[in-house]
Each structure stands twice: as C-alpha cells, then as structure tokens.
TrEMBL record:
GO terms for molecular function: hexose transmembrane transporter activity. Its main location: membrane. It is found in: Cell membrane. This is Plastidic glucose transporter 2. One of its GO terms (cellular component) is plasma membrane. It is a multi-pass membrane protein. The keyword Transmembrane helix applies. Belongs to the major facilitator superfamily. Sugar transporter (TC 2.A.1.1) family. Belongs to the major facilitator superfamily. Phosphate:H(+) symporter (TC 2.A.1.9) family. The keyword Transmembrane helix applies.
Length: 530
C-alpha cells in the first residue's frame, strides 16, 4: 500500500508526530475503519487528541486526499491564539451607526409627539398619533423586503450608503413638515432606510468579526440602539419650553446618517460576500486585514468547503417560504415576531404617555428607561460570549414575563396606593432591562449565524420584515388597546407572549457561541431536514 503522502512531521508543542507507512498491503476492513475514524476525529478536534491515523488510498479519492491534506495543514497553520479583535473593531463601530439611527428614530417622537400633534393640527386623535409612530415602521417593512437583495447585489458597504440617503431626505422632510401628510411622508422615507440598514448591519458585523468576539460585537448593535434611543429622549427634553424644538430633533439625525455614507467608503467589504462573487483574492486580502494572515488562509479554506461562489443570487423567495430552508426561516421569523409581541416597542415609543398616566414626570421616566436599557445592554455585552445566546434568550423572556406580572398587580391596586406606583414603574424599568439582556440583542446576532451562507442576506430580510410588520401594528394600536382593554389585560397578553417565547427558544434555538460561521453551517447540515 502507498501512504497518503510522504512521511509527515507535525510539531505539537515540542513532540514530533510521524505518520508511518503501513506495513501490510491489505489491512483488515475493521482496522481500516478504525484508522479512518481516528484521522477525521483528529481533524475535527483540530488535533487536540494526539492520535496517529492511517487511511488507505482505496477508501478515498485523490481529491479527498488533497482536501484533507489542505485541511490538516490549515489546522496546523492556524495560530493557537485567537485572532486579534482590534483589526475589525473600527469597521464594526462604523456599522453600528445604523442601529444608533434606528434607536434615535424610534424615540425621536416619544417626548415631542404631543407638541407635534398640536403644531400640525391633530392633537387628541390617538389613531393619528399612532400613525406618526407607525408610518416609519411601515416604511421599514418596505425597505426590509429589498434589503437582502440589495446586500447581495451591490455588497454590504454600498447597501449601508444606500440606506443613508432616504434617512437624510426623510428627516429633512419631517423637520420642515407643515401638516400631518408631510410628517407621514418624511417618516415613511426614514423608515425605508431603517428597513435596509439593520439587517445589513447584523450581516456585516457577523461576517467580519472573529468568532471569539462575535457575540460581543453583536451586543454593540444593541448598545448603539440604546444610545440612539437615549439621545433622542434627552434631545427631546426642551421640546415643551422651546417653540419648534421638535424640528431640531429631526435635523440632528441627518448628521450621523451623512457620517455613515462617508465613513463606509473607508471600511472593508464583507469577505463572505466577496467570496460568493468569485473574488477570492480580494476576500483573502480583506480577511488578512481583519483577522491576520494564518487565520485568513484557514477561513478561506473553510469557506471553500461551505460556500459556493455565485449561488447567493439564485435563491428565490419561494425557496425560503416553502423549500428546504423554510424551517430555519420560520425559526428566525418567529423569534423576531415574539420579540415584538412582548410589547417592548410600545414601551420605547409611548413611555412618556404611560408614565404621565401613572403620575411620573416624563423627563424622569425617559431617562430611567434609557438607563435601564443601557444597563441591560452592558450585561449582554459581558455575557454574550460566556453564557451564550440561548441562555440569555431564556433568561430574558422569562424575566420579561415576571415583570408583566408586576405591572398587572399594580393595576389591581388603588391608584393612590404607593405600592401600585412602585410596582408599575419598577416593573416597566425591569421589563426594559430584561429585554436588553437577551431578547433585544440576540435575535439580530443569532440569525445570521444559523442561516446558511447561501440564503443569509435574503433570509434576514424575510425575518426582519416580520419584525417590522408586528412593530407597526404594536405602535399603531397600543394606545387604542390601552384605552379599550385597560393596562391589566394588555400587559397580561404581553406576558403570555413572553412565556410562549421561552417555550419556543427552549425547543428550537441552538447555541452558537465561539464557533465560526462555517463550523455552525457544517454542524447544522447533518441535523437539518431541509
């Protein structure tokens, strides 16, 4: 028998390992199987278990020999230390301008909504006030439908720049609006940009981040959204004392949107997108820039075993909804749906109104909501790559359910009872904190990890579209439902959805912390029925 290669020395620590030539020409079948299992087991564990392996040529093709030799050399050539996170950090920070703008535009009408309604002539009409909030979300739904196709056609960087344009134009129209129609038009345009941006941001951060800090970088998205929301709430404080201040609030949002378009010119393109376009040399150069030399070569080899250039543009919507990828898309869409049905964006959009009804100054309420959101996001940042995605989701949704119980108990007590006040306000702040720990940041990070590379951008677009639809109806109907149902039944409904989310996550979500995107995809392939 001829050996797979000439005698190969592998240095692990200071001990050399030599693959010796077989002494028998026709080893027994059961021994051959043992040798194969030993070799490929060592490769999967990156040679962590020191075994010698021998595979007869008769059992593998010449292509398999070359592939396995390449994989072996890649495993041995990879740096033992994790690739540095500092190289990719600037690119991630630029991408987080998008979630910052998302948070800002969600919160920008929170405090000024009453003043806007007075100035534009629809004060007291809760449905029209709801439209001012929800029209932005309707635009986001429309933009989101096209985000996956835009990201695959023109690349992640150009998609960022394209989403900045309607955000600048829409904010300017809102700032100069003379009536409700102008305000709704501007909010719709802003929404189309927000629909394209967040899915692309999740894709981009996932695809350029080293595996060991991908969860941490994913948490940056939630923290940026938190900063955007806090910024909008703080900037809106003078709205009652300075005439026309709400117009300044919209003008301010044009600054970060313009910065996004400019700074993206200096950022790296996604190496995964470059590889799928057949631009392998550019992809490897970008990986070296983001991860370092040896890690780049290993990642390119992994990409060659999972990705196939040119396939991304062949995926059709019907394949996502009814084909072999339908189950994983269903999981992603349901996760985003449950996130919104928990009622979190009703809190972010209408916290001023709700707190005023409870007798709390809205300025204090808004600051408290922002602080709770920031604390929860910081906890998620620290735990995402330690505790894991699934555990954070379970703790988050269960904690949110408990918080809705506190709010329901508050409604059962007399309004003059101090306990009712503390339960209501404390329950809402804890609700926001628990959301920021897991239900907020995890879906946007987890879904790009579990979606196969071929469908990643378009599957994110479909899942985020579900997010925006439900976000729209929650924003549109929350005040009306609060008036019709009362706070007790409404918060009970939100709590039920949180408990449903706990069951769903327990049964359907897998853990992805510390794994490369290629490892996750390979791990899912044998288990996936689709």
């Amino acid at each position: 028998m001829v050996c797979l290669a000439t005698p190969l020395f592998v240095h692990i620590g200071s001990q050399p390992f030599r693959r010796r030539e077989a002494k028998q020409e026709n080893p027994a079948p059961h021994k051959r199987r043992e040798a194969e299992v030993g070799m490929f087991g060592d490769l999967r564990r990156s040679l962590s278990v020191h075994k010698r392996a021998m595979v007869p040529r008769a059992y593998i093709s010449s292509n398999d020999i070359e592939d396995n030799a390449d994989l072996l050399r890649s495993s041995l050539g990879r740096d033992t230390a994790s690739p540095t996170w500092k190289l990719s950090l600037p690119h991630v920070l630029v991408a987080t301008i998008v979630p910052f703008l998302f948070g800002y535009h969600i919160g920008v009408v929170n405090e000024p909504l009453e003043t806007i309604s007075v100035d534009l002539g629809f004060h007291g009409n809760t449905l029209q006030e709801g439209f001012v909030v929800s029209t932005c979300l309707a635009g986001a739904f429309v933009g989101c439908l096209f985000s996956g196709w835009i990201a695959d056609e023109v690349g992640r960087r150009r998609a960022f720049q394209l989403c900045a344009l309607p955000m600048v134009m829409g904010a300017a129209i809102c700032a100069t609006a003379k009536n409700l129609t102008g305000m709704l038009l501007g909010r719709f345009l802003v929404g189309t940009g927000l629909g394209v941006g967040p899915p692309v941001a999740s894709l981009y951060v996932t695809e350029i981040s080293p595996a060991h800090v991908r969860g941490t970088y994913g948490s940056f998205i939630q923290i940026a959204s938190c900063f955007g929301l806090m910024g909008a709430l703080l900037i809106g404080i003078p709205v009652r004392s300075i005439f026309g201040w709400w117009r300044i609030c919209f003008w301010i949002s044009t600054i970060p949107a313009s910065m996004l378009a400019l700074l993206m010119m200096f950022c790296a393109e996604s190496p995964h997108w470059l590889y799928k376009q057949g631009r392998n040399v550019e992809a490897e150069a970008v990986l070296e820039k983001l991860l370092g030399g040896s890690e780049a070569k290993a990642t390119i080899l992994e990409l060659s075993n999972t990705d196939r250039g040119g396939e991304a543009n062949t995926i059709k919507l019907i394949e996502l909804l009814c084909g072999r990828h339908s189950r994983v898309v269903f999981i992603g869409s349901t996760l985003f749906a449950l996130q919104q049905l928990s009622g979190i964006n009703a809190v972010f959009c209408f916290s001023s109104t709700v707190f005023r009804r409870a007798g709390v100054f809205s300025d204090l309420a808004n600051i408290s909501v922002g602080i709770a959101n920031f604390i929860g996001s910081t906890i998620a940042l620290a735990l995402m790559d330690k505790l894991g995605r699934k555990a954070l989701l379970l703790c988050s949704f269960f904690g949110m359910a408990v918080c809705t119980v506190l709010q329901v108990l508050a409604t059962a007590l007399s309004a003059s009872n101090p306990t009712a006040f503390y339960l209501s306000v404390g329950g809402m702040l804890l609700f926001v904190l628990m959301y920021a720990v897991g239900a907020g940041p995890v879906p946007g990070l987890l879904l790009p990890e579990i979606f196969p590379s071929r469908i990643r951008a378009k599957a994110m677009a479909v899942s985020m579209a579900v997010h925006w639809v439900l976000n729209f109806f929650v924003g549109l109907l929350f005040l009306r439902l609060l008036d019709v149902m009362g706070p007790g039944p409404l918060y009970s409904m939100f709590g039920a959805f949180c408990l449903l989310a706990v069951v769903f996550v327990k049964r359907n979500v897998l853990e992805t912390k510390g794994k490369s995107l290629q490892e996750i995809e390979i791990a899912l392939l044998p288990q996936s029925p689709f």
